[in-house]
Specification:
- α1 runs parallel beside α6 (166-190) and α5 packs antiparallel against α7 (222-231).
- The protein has 2 domains: 7-206, 3-Layer(aba) Sandwich (Rossmann fold); 211-304, Formyl transferase, C-terminal domain (Methionyl-tRNA Fmet Formyltransferase, Chain A, domain 2, Roll), CATH 3.10.25.
- It has helices at 18-25, 52-59, 73-80, 98-101, 124-130, 166-190, 222-231, 298-304; strands at residues 7-12, 30-35, 40-42, 47-49, 64-65, 86-90, 108-112, 120-121, 135-142, 152-159, 205-206, 238-242, 245-255, 266-270, 273-277, 282-290, 296-297.
- It has 317 residues and is of the alpha/beta class.
Length: 317
């Protein structure tokens, strides 16, 4: 019997979603249109350019919609004109109304970068790393009006290494989610798929990241500070202040030693060795960046900046 093909409308915006779009384009299913957020200024020059999903859709010569909101009746009508069997959502970035969700014949499913019901919301990868989780994954869930609360169709798990950054985990989950999404679509094309309700009592929320989330509280444990540094890579990055100047902390590790000094005190600053006392334990900084300068190793940074043992770092100037 010839496998059934589904007509898919794809909703996504950032780089994370590109892997899913690529896998869809290589699958037996037909991508009939792409919905992505409007172009926005970015970078130092604030030039307006296509987002990652739009750029991939243009290269594939796919029809593209970029409505400021999907609440507009004209936008809903344009979505309906794709005549899709199902919608696939991957980091689109906006809450969808029931009218939009129900426009495709089979509704919509979402590629969510956490093991639901934990870490619903805008920043599931970063919040899981910041929390020191040892495992994360991707859940394919049915889109409902409530945020990331729909029943689950499939899950894949992956470990989070002790030195792994959010950027590295995002890359892994993007690929895993793309494969899982297409496998789930294949199953849906062949008939109903079991949908498991989420346990609301286990639900947690992953709040959107803000720049102020990067401020390091040196009274926290070394492990918590290290997890925040790697969890906020590549944005907004962890930071601290030395002599009133902001310094970005890009890479770190938890040092095995202890320090008889208040949190934020530099306890070593020579060669490759830049260590800072935490509330408990010591954090070794391995990659660091002065405001407006390039990232440097600890050795490079110490060669050109005056950091001394006994200096105190602070979360504010």
């Amino acid at each position: 019997m010839t496998p059934r093909t589904l007509r898919v409308v794809f909703l996504g915006t950032p780089q994370f979603a590109v892997s899913t779009l690529d896998r869809l384009l290589a699958s037996r299913h037909a991508v009939v249109g792409v919905v992505t957020q409007p172009d926005r200024p970015s970078g130092r020059g604030q030039k307006t350019s296509p987002g990652p999903v739009k750029a991939r859709a243009l290269a594939a010569q796919l029809p593209i919609l970029q409505p400021p909101t999907l609440k507009d009746p004209d936008a809903v009508a344009a979505l309906a004109a794709f005549d899709a069997d199902i919608g696939v959502v991957a980091a689109y970035g906006k809450i969808l109304s029931e009218r939009v969700i129900n426009t495709p014949r089979l509704g919509m499913i979402n590629v969510h970068a956490s093991l639901l019901p934990r870490y619903r919301g805008a920043a599931p990868i970063h919040r899981a790393v910041i929390a020191g989780e040892k495992e994360t994954g991707v859940t394919i869930m049915r889109v409902v009006k409530a945020l990331d609360a729909g029943p689950m169709l499939a899950t894949v798990r992956t470990p989070i290494g002790s030195e792994t950054t959010s950027a590295e985990i995002e890359h892994t989950l993007s690929a895993l989610g793309a494969d899982l999404l297409v496998a789930t679509l294949d199953r849906l094309a062949d008939g109903p798929v079991a949908e498991i309700p989420q346990d609301e009592q286990l639900a947690t929320y992953a709040h959107r990241l803000e720049k102020h989330d990067g401020a390091i509280d040196w009274s926290a444990s070394a492990a918590a500070i290290h997890d925040r540094i790697r969890g906020l890579h590549p944005w907004p990055h962890a930071y601290t202040f030395h002599a009133g100047t902001r310094v970005i902390l890009r890479r770190s590790r938890v040092d095995a030693g202890a320090a008889d000094a208040p949190g934020g005190t530099i306890v070593a600053a020579t060669g490759d060795d830049l260590r800072i006392a935490a509330g408990t334990g010591v954090v070794a900084i391995t990659e660091i960046q002065a405001e407006g300068k390039r990232p440097m190793t600890a050795r490079e940074f110490l060669a050109g900046h005056h950091l001394h043992v006994g200096d105190r770092l602070s979360p504010a100037p």
